[in-house]
Design brief:
Layout lengths: L3 H14 L30 E6 L10 H4 E11 L5 E11 L11 E5 L11 H7 L5 H9 L3 E5 L15 H17 L9 E7 L1 H16 L4 E8 L5 H8 L5 H14 L10 H9 L16 H4 L6 H4 L5 H7 L11 E6 L7 H13 L4 E6 L3 H21 L12
Parallel strand pairs: 4-5, 4-6, 6-7, 7-8, 8-9
Antiparallel strand pairs: 1-2, 2-3, 3-5
Helix pairs in contact: 5-6
């Protein structure tokens, strides 16, 4: 999730480089043909369906198009229910030879909140607008790491984006790494792997590191860096309901309802139905549209988000999204700002403690950077040292004893 100040900062950045934000978020342009899945999907997870060269607009001078080989990819994955699905994403590989130990590492980079509309997909934003995650992957690319960045299920491709679905997001991240290794851009099936994400991406990367031992055991994952993880969505919903960031709560409600085959309109009144319809055309730049809106004004029974999620079918759905109940098999860096105003600090710390109780190697790092955006900046700086140590084969010393 990405808060108001980040949008302000990104708006300033957009103005600086001469780009423009999406014009009418409620109007979804036609989906490019690249993102349409074939009638029959090829076998396997992480199988490349098609790829094409991607114009990578991270900087106004387009210098990065010389420094990196960048591909837009459509690949196979599996939904929460086990159905085959096509997912899109981006692979970036530095053109300079890898000079570190062993083979070039690849980072399975789980993006933060983009929105619900297909036009918001990072693999489109890199060439059609501006992708804010580009500001944070630059440091990874300059260290020689390859990037495998999924758009997630239903973002860019057909269907509704299954926003905040733990299994769908985790599987999409792991299968994106598989696809990158099979793309023929200099990566190998035994390339060392790191997982990185913040906010929605933190949840996706954390889910991926939990799922990896059973879903993708062949991947040589060396560690995961996760920040501001929405590990307890009930607590997050209580915090977001009626807040400036209420838009993200509506994303989660719509995305989980889609994943579980529930009609969200059974819960909402006419005004709520309008919100559920409109957000399908929204990107993160449309944060202001639903700022301050409350579930109590939008539900048929006047329930708050906490009350609505405390009864079925939502109770079981929310419980199934909890992260921290499955032991990661590799070292994990967990970062969170004590001043986070979107994902409560207590949520991230409680997740780390659950992992610690299961014997995982966890280092929990608290920072005092103001707001959710500030926490993102702190996480991006810590992840560099974390991955350098993991890829060099150095151990992580857990601080579980201090939690």
């Amino acid at each position: 999730m990405f808060l108001a100040r980040s949008v302000v900062a990104l708006t300033a950045l957009i103005a600086t480089v001469g780009l423009t934000a999406p014009a009418d978020a409620a109007t979804e342009p036609p989906r490019p043909a690249f993102y349409e899945a074939p009638a029959t999907l090829p076998a396997g997870n992480g199988t490349v369906i098609r790829s094409e060269t991607l114009t990578f607009l991270l900087d106004p001078g387009h210098v990065n198009q010389v420094a990196f080989t960048t591909k837009r990819v459509l690949y196979t994955s599996t939904t929460r229910t086990g159905a085959r699905v096509a997912v899109s994403g981006t692979v970036m590989v530095p053109t300079a030879p890898w000079v570190g130990l062993g083979k070039r590492p690849v980072i399975g980079y789980a993006v933060g909140t983009q929105g619900m509309a297909d036009k918001c997909a990072p693999s489109r934003q890199f060439s059609e607008g501006i992708e804010y995650e580009g500001l944070f992957i630059q440091g990874l690319l300059t260290r020689g790491y390859a990037i495998a960045m999924t758009d997630y299920e239903g973002l860019g491709t057909a269907g509704i984006h299954t926003y905040m679905d733990r299994e769908a997001q985790g599987r999409a991240v792991l299968d994106m790494v598989r696809a990158a290794q099979r793309l023929g851009v200099g990566l190998a099936s035994d390339s060392p792997v790191g997982l990185q994400g913040y906010s929605q991406g933190g949840g996706a990367a954390a889910a991926a590191v939990e799922l990896a031992p059973t879903y993708a055991p062949e991947l040589r994952i060396k560690g995961a860096s996760v920040g501001a993880v929405p590990a307890d969505q009930y607590a997050v919903a209580k915090n977001l309901d009626g807040s400036f960031y209420a838009e993200f709560l509506f994303y989660a409600t719509r995305g989980l309802a889609a994943s579980y085959g529930i009609d969200p309109k059974a819960t909402f009144n006419d005004a709520g139905d309008v919100v559920m319809d409109e957000i399908e055309g929204h990107c993160v730049t449309d944060l202001f549209v639903n700022s301050g809106k409350k579930f109590t004004d939008l539900t048929t029974t006047g329930q708050s988000a906490a009350q609505a999620f405390a009864v079925e079918p939502y109770t079981s759905i929310i419980a199934a999204q909890r992260i921290g109940d499955r032991k990661p098999a590799v070292p994990v860096l967990v970062t969170h700002s004590a001043l986070d105003d979107v994902i409560p600090y207590s949520v991230g710390k409680a997740m780390a403690k659950r992992w610690c109780a299961k014997g995982a190697n966890v280092y929990f790092s608290t920072n005092l950077n103001a707001t959710h955006l500030g926490g993102m900046l702190a996480t991006s700086s810590e992840m560099y040292a974390f991955f350098e140590a993991r890829f060099a084969g150095l151990p992580q010393f857990s601080n579980c004893w201090a939690l």
